[in-house]
Amino acid sequence: MKHIARKRFGQNFLTDQLVLNNIIAAINPQPDQSMVEIGPGLAAMTRLLLAGLTTLHVVELDRDLVARLKKSFDPAKLIVHEGDALQFDFAALPVAAGKKLRIVGNLPYNISSPLLFHLAEFTDLVEDQHFMLQKEVVERMVAEPGSKAYGRLSVMLQWRYHMDLLFVVPPTAFDPPPRVESAIVRMIPKATRLACDVRKLEQVVTKAFSQRRKVVRNCVAGMFTEEQLLSVGIDPQLRAETIPLEQYVALANLLAD
């Protein structure tokens, strides 16, 4: 029985075999690795991942798809977790001694940003992440200072990860086809991060990008003086999208003092 894609779950099923093969080649799953797939859907990628893995965990919200997955795969090889990835405790997944978790998935575009921030809570437990996302979101994730795409998402994720846009996927690769282009992003947690309180960094970045048309002095008024901005090398007349990660971290450390 054909599964009808559900808009409320943001379902667009990847069907293009060449794209699937390219994703698997980028991920390169190995038998001894601990991997979890978010939103396996109709299992197009799941089957290919399992060919290279001993076991695979999947997180799926759609009850009909959960039933289909449990019926289609050996439960010793595919461990199905029914639930919302936004609430899922990825730290609870079993990982072999000395190993870290690998996370993959064609993420629902309607929850991509909150899901990325939820996953960021588990950065220290993760080896890498490979996701299919809306191309525009991936461009924001990897954007450099000075780009229109550079913003809160860029700064907060770049503080935690090295990220690369690997390749673009056209709408025709999906059923039903989305209205936008997609892209594959690789995210590797940084071995060492710039020292700061992440909650302070979040406060600074949220405030700085709250009014993108204004200069940074006006955006962070009440949080920092002009002298404080100058003390960390920030021209108060600059706009938030021109300021690099390092200077946002410096501001977060000023806030923490």
UniProtKB/TrEMBL annotation:
GO terms for cellular component: cytosol. Its main location: cytoplasm. One of its GO terms (molecular function) is RNA binding. Transmembrane segments: none annotated. Pfam families: RrnaAD. It is an enzyme of class 2 (transferase). InterPro entries: KsgA/Erm, rRNA_Ade_diMease-like_C, rRNA_Ade_Mease_Trfase_CS, rRNA_Ade_methylase_Trfase_N, rRNA_adenine_dimethylase, SAM-dependent_MTases_sf. Residues 19-191 form the Ribosomal RNA adenine methylase transferase N-terminal domain. It catalyses: adenosine(1518)/adenosine(1519) in 16S rRNA + 4 S-adenosyl-L-methionine = N(6)-dimethyladenosine(1518)/N(6)-dimethyladenosine(1519) in 16S rRNA + 4 S-adenosyl-L-homocysteine + 4 H(+). Keywords: Cytoplasm, Methyltransferase, RNA-binding, rRNA processing, S-adenosyl-L-methionine, Transferase. S-adenosyl-L-methionine binds at N12, L14, G39, E60, D84, N106. Its EC number is 2.1.1.182. It is found in: Cytoplasm. HAMAP family: 16SrRNA_methyltr_A. NCBIfam families: ksgA. Specifically dimethylates two adjacent adenosines (A1518 and A1519) in the loop of a conserved hairpin near the 3'-end of 16S rRNA in the 30S particle. May play a critical role in biogenesis of 30S subunits. Belongs to the class I-like SAM-binding methyltransferase superfamily. rRNA adenine N(6)-methyltransferase family. RsmA subfamily. This is Ribosomal RNA small subunit methyltransferase A. The lineage of its organism: Bacteria, Pseudomonadati, Pseudomonadota, Betaproteobacteria, Burkholderiales.
